[in-house]
Design goal:
Elements: E1 6-20, H1 22-26, E2 34-35, E3 37-38, E4 41-56, E5 65-79, E6 85-96, H2 99-104, E7 113-122, E8 126-133, E9 140-146, H3 159-167, E10 171-175, E11 181-188, E12 195-204, E13 218-240, H4 241-247
Parallel strand pairs: 6-7, 6-10
Antiparallel strand pairs: 1-4, 1-13, 2-5, 3-4, 4-5, 5-6, 7-8, 8-9, 9-12, 10-11, 11-13, 12-13
Length: about 250
């Protein structure tokens, strides 16, 4: 089926980012993909996004829906069919508070979507968010506040450097029931602006799983926040892991 262009507003988007061991990270990537490095680190994280007025492009905003969503992400690179290096994110898990999004997973929205309960307090500067998945896996908790600068311990030297890194990660490929195929989508925004988000507490059941990331192989790096951004989602051709492995 032809997937329509999806239009809406990013009311709030938190990017909670970790630095990780590249060798460990590469073990959980699909064939044909490799970690996109910043210095000596792989960069992984959680995208926590509130979407509003979400509807197929061309329909009025009043018909759109709103939802809280979470995606575990890994910054990746791969070799395209023309031999050039491509970059984006691999999404091993998506969660949503919307039953509609769950049912539309793989059709209107990419990949498999797990249903979860979101508890959110947001005063426009500070955010406290808890995500409790129905299946009990990959629980998330984040508390923080918008600030003016990145933490000094970050592997990124400035906000501009971090913004540039993540601005190129607007292409995402998500897992499906077919282990040889990833669903693709591209985020298009007329403007890209992020602000540092100081995290006072964070937990990710996915990244805390020692079977994926043994102790000492992953560490919190920094948070970013975006607000009130018009956007569109454009479907991409699936990523063929078998072909990518053979040619990459």
């Amino acid at each position: 089926m032809t997937v329509p262009v999806i239009k809406g507003i990013i009311r709030r988007r938190l990017l909670i980012n970790f630095r990780a061991d590249p060798e460990v990270t590469s073990r959980i990537l699909p064939a044909g993909m490799r970690p996109k490095l910043h210095g000596s680190h792989a960069i992984v994280g959680i995208c926590l996004i509130r979407l509003e007025q979400i509807r197929p492009k061309g329909l009025p905003a009043a018909l759109g829906i709103a939802s809280e969503n979470a995606a575990h992400r890994i910054a990746v690179e791969w070799t395209g069919h023309d031999g050039r290096c491509e970059e984006g994110v691999f999404v091993p898990r998506r969660d949503t508070g919307s039953v509609i999004n769950v049912m539309a997973g793989g059709c209107l929205f990419p990949g498999e979507q797990h249903h979860a309960r979101f508890e959110v307090q947001d005063d426009g500067r500070g955010v406290s968010l808890t995500m409790i998945p129905d299946d009990g896996h990959a629980r998330i908790g984040v508390t923080g506040v918008a600030v003016e600068s990145l933490p000094t311990r970050s592997c990124f030297s400035s906000l501009d450097e971090a913004s540039e890194f993540f601005a190129h990660d607007c292409t995402g490929y998500s897992t499906t029931r077919d282990p040889e195929r990833l669903d693709g989508i591209k985020l298009i925004t007329p403007e890209w602006r992020v602000q540092p988000f100081e995290v006072s507490d964070v937990h990710s059941g996915f990244f805390a799983d020692a079977s994926r990331f043994p102790k000492g192989s992953i560490e919190f790096d920094h948070g970013l926040v975006m607000r009130d951004i018009d956007h569109e989602w454009h479907a991409l051709p699936p990523f063929d892991c078998v072909h990518a492995c053979a040619t990459g």
